[in-house]
Amino acid sequence: MSDFVHFTFHQDFNVFLDKTNRNKTYQYLFEENSTVKDSIEVQGVPHTEVEWVLVNKQSVNFSYRLQNEDNVEVFPYHAKLQIPCIVRPPLSSLDFMVDFNVRKITKYLRMLGFRTVTDEGVPDEEIAAIAERENKIVLTRDIGLLKRKNVTYGYFLRSEEVEKQIVEIVKRYNLLPQIAPFSICLTCNGGIERVAKENILEELPILIREEYDEFFQCNACQKVYWKGSHFDNMRKVIDTLQEQN
Ligand SMILES: [Zn+2]
After folding, report:
1. Which of 228, 128, 110, 100 is nearest to 169 (CA)?
2. What is the whole-number distance in angstroms between the Cα of residue 101 and the centre of ligand 1?
3. What is the pTM of this model?
């Protein structure tokens, strides 16, 4: 007789699961020596989406080996649950790596003050290696990339619309209290600081020179910023996020 466990995926996993396994507890046949991580990923859910795994009501690691008739419950991140996550080490910093398929979010994340790089279309293998080496959070719509062993931190963007994607990221990583407009250069990811108008006067278009008094400059590429239309757009994004919170 084959061994089986009872499996339940709670909350927000439906996008990955077979329709027949959504929102319910079901029997899952497993091969001898399967880890709980393998059994989760075989069913479509990348390990990066999982925050807690309970087996018979006890929190376990991904390396746990399934036993006959175990009761397995899988949970995604949930802001209101303050249970320690033991399936991966805590994040030490918020450093994003944006996959090519969602590259438009790069500018928005920088606008909000988060260091973000885009992969520029390099192979998955390389993205995973960079993410591992530099402790980056991978943001993507590629489930296969998130299933890679060396991608520890990552998130699958549910929406295909940039603005909705930003809202998802802000919620998932609780970014709202850390938003810092005009701290990251939109072009090169460098740091931005206030700069005196007289120091950059030469670089300003004549109309800007007359209309604005407050300026910022990137300390890496020297690009100058002022609170023009891009600032208004960003303000709108932030306001929407705050309203939804
Ligand atoms: Zn720059």
Report:
1. 110
2. 23
3. 0.90
